[in-house]
Amino acid sequence: MHEPVDDPTQQPSSGPLRIGAVSYLNTKPLVYGLSELLPAAELSFDYPSCLADSLATGDLDIALVPSIELASHPEWSIISDACIGSLGPVLSVKLMFRVPPPDVRELALDEGSRTSSVLAQILLSELFGVRPQLTRLPLGREPDESAADAVLVIGDRAIRSRQHEFVEEWDLGDRWCRWAELPFVFAMWVARPGVATEAVGAALAAARDRGCQNLGTIARDQAAAMQLPLQLVEDYLYRNLYFQMGPLQRQGLEFYYQQAAKLGLIHTVPRVTVDDCHLEH
Predict the structure, then answer these.
(1) Nearest C-alpha neighbor of 92 from the set 169, 205, 20, 190
(2) Least confident of 142-156, 201-215, 216-230
(3) CA distances from 51 to 56, 63, 189, 205 (A)
(4) What is the pLDDT of residues 181-207, one digit of tens each?
(5) Given this model, what pLDDT does residue 182 score?
(6) Given a cut of 70, is residue 276 above it in pLDDT?
(7) Who wins on pLDDT, 64 or 279?
(8) 107, 118, 154, 230 - which has most CB atoms within 10 Å?
(9) Phi/psi at 71 (nearest 5 deg)?
């Protein structure tokens, strides 16, 4: 049994450590019991893109951020092998088409997404040679409210989405894994410079372990809270998500960065190293 970490989050000069987590269903297993493991920390929840912005401005010390953010912030450190990833279909990242993929000229990107926004552009370019004009799908708007040829949606909004007038739908986890023949990592725990992270990294891994041991309980609670079918939530947590960053996940992430750089979507290809954690946890 994991014991609470002995006050590693108390920062004498600046108060308790501020940790930001994603507000979507896919993060529930990563923060299961985290408040007990890190009782001195301040835990808050937001959209992935907002968490990255808050970490960049110093409003957070540690956050679960879109994996693409490491390319813009090489000063950040990955502090745990706990992550949000997939080995195939992920269900909560969808690219929905009004026209056949080769005919896409305008792509609307979920405003809460950054990693998946780049992923969608990589796959459209590599599979069909398509480089569409980009527009935004604001938070709180439904896919069918955008007139774009293709619309990217992520998180709980993607789980709830229906095809409506769309002619085709891609699960981007599935498309990536079949094309790259590697897993994908959508988000990971990172810290800004100067933050003491060794004990926190261990606690994040411990919370992930607790969550994975209690997926049934999480599924029942979230199915009721979100008014979703229990079978759908169970399948999502048990089958669509993978919560540990091992060697293949790091290889997939490095390949993703290389592809993004090739298209000019990022300017730096970061090295994927995990500080202060045991990779074979």
Answers:
(1) 169
(2) 142-156
(3) 9, 6, 11, 20
(4) 999 999 999 999 988 777 899 999 999
(5) 97
(6) no
(7) 64
(8) 154
(9) -70, -30
What domains can be seen in the chain, in order of their start residue? 10-85+184-262 (3.40.190.10), 93-180 (3.40.190.10)
Give me 242's structure tokens: 């993978």
> Where do we find the tokens 């507000």?
23
